[in-house]
Amino acid sequence: MTDRKLLEIRNLNVEYRTDDEIVYAVNSLDLSLNSGESLGLVGETGAGKSTTALSILQLVADPPGKTTSGEILFEGEDLLKAKKDFLRHIRGNKISMIFQDPMTSLNPVYSVGDQIAEVIYLHEKCSKSEAQQKAAEMLETVGIPKERYDEYPHQFSGGMKQRVVIAMSIACSPQLILADEPTTALDVTIQAQVLELMNDLKVKFNTSLLLITHDLGVVAQVCDRVAIMYAGEIVEIGTVEEVFENPKHPYTVGLFRSIPQLDEKVDRLKPIKGQMPDPTNLPSGCKFHPRCPHAIEACTKIQPAMTNVKGTHIVKCFIHEGKFESTELMEEVK
Ligand SMILES: Nc1ncnc2c1ncn2[C@@H]1O[C@H](COP(=O)(O)OP(=O)(O)OP(=O)(O)O)[C@@H](O)[C@H]1O
Ligand code: NI
């Protein structure tokens, strides 16, 4: 693994403009990913995770979506300024995307083998028969017997379809895979198998992965680093070890608390009180302050800055900026 930054998102702002309101979906977001690294992007529904991933490939529907500012540097090139042709080249060769529903990517009227072969054919400019040969190997790589080459998507289970999508997404040897809840629709056992497959492939092909999920367990299984997203912002980021062993942001602390423990009964769960703020009318100051048990007056007025707490662990919270102290929080995150 090298330290070279493959992807660097700087100050990204994305809005959805409808007739009478503006949804502030992604707000001043900074995020970077090294070659070969996998980063989990975690947050509640509506946090802006999908919008972030879609904007990397400029797949946010416009209208209503508008990227109002920012830079998305991929190998140093700003994708937000890139021409359509270049983006198409990037999409087919360097970055691929996996969605929750495999049928977003699969065509019901072609056999799964031919769909994979098509990607290989376009990417490698080899002969059709070579592409078919490689597609059959690719099926085996993702754990599907090559005898099933000629079958159609509807003949496969959800987990098997998602394996086909994974085969298609790695067929062009991408440097980066954006996976938006790739296993959410699958049942738990199958989910574990698909995640293990993604893990193996990531190591084998040294692919970087941006994995969007609600599930911190999935992050622990697959990712090197994790970013916690709230109301369109990253509020905490670090290695999985840093964040899981020592969550710092009150929101992250709440997220971990709301995970059912094996030895805990469901009625002992402590979900975070309150709701995500209305994205058309975000609160001033820290966007988490209305729900934060530790908020002080400053939090209601001023935006905290991203502050390095230790190692590569960064958090956006006044208490950890060291400017203000909350003894309660200090107790809690000790
Ligand atoms: N096409 C759209 N038009 C208007 N608002 C949208 C559109 N797409 C998304 N939004 C809004 O943008 C915000 C961010 O949505 P996004 O889908 O990025 O969140 P998410 O974190 O991926 O959520 P989920 O976990 O539910 O997938 C939400 O408030 C959502 O309602
Ligand atoms: Ni989403």
UniProtKB/TrEMBL annotation:
Gene3D superfamilies: P-loop containing nucleotide triphosphate hydrolases
A GO molecular-function annotation: ATP binding
Record keyword Transmembrane present: no
Domain ABC transporter per the UniProt entry, residue ranges: 9-256
EC class of the enzyme, as a word: translocase
Catalytic activity: Ni(2+)(out) + ATP + H2O = Ni(2+)(in) + ADP + phosphate + H(+)
Enzyme Commission code(s) on record: 7.2.2.11
Compartments reported by the entry: Cell membrane
Keywords: ATP-binding, Cell membrane, Ion transport, Membrane, Nickel, Nickel transport, Nucleotide-binding, Translocase, Transport
UniProt membrane topology term: Peripheral membrane protein
InterPro entries reported for this sequence: AAA+_ATPase (IPR003593), ABC_Ni/Peptide_Import (IPR050388), ABC_transporter-like_ATP-bd (IPR003439), ABC_transporter-like_CS (IPR017871), Oligopep_ABC_C (IPR013563), P-loop_NTPase (IPR027417)
One Pfam family per UniProt: oligo_HPY
Source organism superkingdom: Bacteria
UniProt family annotation: Belongs to the ABC transporter superfamily.
Assembly and interaction partners: The complex is composed of two ATP-binding proteins (NikD and NikE), two transmembrane proteins (NikB and NikC) and a solute-binding protein (NikA).
NCBIfam families documented for this protein: oligo_HPY (TIGR01727)
Protein name listed in UniProt: Nickel import system ATP-binding protein NikD
Organism whose genome encodes this protein: Neobacillus kokaensis
